[in-house]
Write a structure and sequence with these properties.
Number of helices: 5
Largest sheet: none
Structural class: mainly alpha
Strand content: under 5%
Distance between the termini: 46 Å
Shape: globular
Number of strands: 0
Radius of gyration: 13 Å
């Protein structure tokens, strides 16, 4: 049986948080994604692809001015990790470049 820290469970938690965000339930989504991100870092390591996905997804929930610095740090974490794992021209890396650029452009 899969426990709460199994990679599939963490992916499901991330997916649930993103569904809640899409449904306009931002306040419910943020703590779930924070939990998923922390568990991924602990269980899978900070450079695991699932951890990087959680970091980027959390950043996308934190784009408001109050959390802007945290969102930028998470996007940079995702970009740096993806570039290290996949190289600079991989689709996931390029998506991360775009996401960070959009955040910085908004300044």
């Amino acid at each position: 049986s899969q426990g709460a820290t199994h990679p599939d469970s963490l992916t499901a938690l991330d997916n649930l948080a993103m569904f809640l965000k899409a449904a306009g339930k931002h306040e419910q989504a943020v703590p779930l994604l924070r939990e998923a991100h922390e568990c991924c870092k602990k269980e899978l390591g900070p450079k695991h692809p699932d951890t990087l996905t959680c970091a980027v997804d959390l950043a996308l929930l934190l784009l408001d001015p109050k959390h802007r610095a945290e969102a930028e740090a998470l996007l940079r974490q995702g970009l740096n990790g993806r570039e290290e794992l996949y190289g600079p021209l991989h689709t996931d890396t390029l998506v991360s470049v775009h996401q960070l650029a959009m955040l910085l452009r908004a300044d």
